[in-house]
Design brief:
116 residues, mainly alpha, elongated, binds heme C
Length: 116
């Protein structure tokens, strides 16, 4: 019996820490659909209604090769600071004003989920 309090403490800790550290894919999806889908399409395939008028057009974000070629920090930076901050087109505008740190984590998690 003497080990049980320790086990309870550890599970309580894991339970308490998880909601803070785990990014929320569904919340990220909601933000993506609200702010990004006009150009990127609802599932990031580059088929949003505004994509046809863009040059260059946004790539398919579900493409596993692209997914592997970038790290989370890159996706976060493009999203927060815009394409120009990473040498991409400025038509990819900055969204740092519209997204909190937590929103950015969630949007990155949603984009990562597209490769599944
Ligand atoms: C006004 C249209 C538009 C909106 C809205 C938009 N983007 Fe983009 N985005 C683009 C374009 C165009 C590119 C491609 C730029 C290039 O290839 O030079 C791009 C590129 C990107 C890339 C880099 C892809 C690569 O080629 O490496 C990411 C990541 C991205 N966008 C995420 C987002 C996220 C997240 C949002 C919403 C918060 C968003 N974008 C909203 C137009 C848009």
């Amino acid at each position: 019996m003497r080990y049980i309090p320790g086990a309870l403490f550890v599970s309580a800790l894991v339970f308490a820490v998880q909601p803070v550290s785990a990014a929320d894919v569904q919340a990220g999806e909601a933000k993506f659909k609200q702010l990004c889908a006009t150009c990127h399409g609802p599932t990031g395939q580059g088929d949003g209604p505004a994509a046809a008028g863009l040059n260059p057009q946004p790539r398919d974000l579900s493409d596993p090769e692209w997914q592997e070629s970038v790290d989370d920090e890159f996706i976060r930076k493009v999203t927060a600071e815009g394409g120009a901050a990473v040498g991409l087109a400025p038509t990819m505008t900055a969204f740092g004003h519209a997204l909190s740190d937590e929103d950015l984590d969630n949007v990155v998690a949603y984009i990562r989920s597209l490769a599944d």
